[in-house]
Write a structure and sequence with these properties.
The protein has about 80 residues and is α+β, with helices and mostly antiparallel strands. Helices cover about 25% and strands about 20% of the residues. The chain has one helix and two strands. The protein is extended and about 55 Å long. A two-stranded antiparallel sheet has the order 1-2.
Length: about 80
Amino acid sequence: ETTGVDIMVVEEGLDTGPIYARHETDIGDHETASELANRLAGIGVVLLLDALKAGLKDPVPQAGEPPYAEKIDPAELRLGWP
């Protein structure tokens, strides 16, 4: 239902670094993945420019345990046509 963009510190772990800025947005009921990706890219540009203009303050640590996403296997990309 929702997604967002973060400006964050890059750490060894995937998506585990503290956050400088965050923007959460609703996913449209009929929004395609491509449309969403384009919209998030635009949000990210504005968020990054605003954060840099304001000067990067101390980042806020992420709350809770970071989720782990398994690596996608190439076989999972194949379509099974009936």
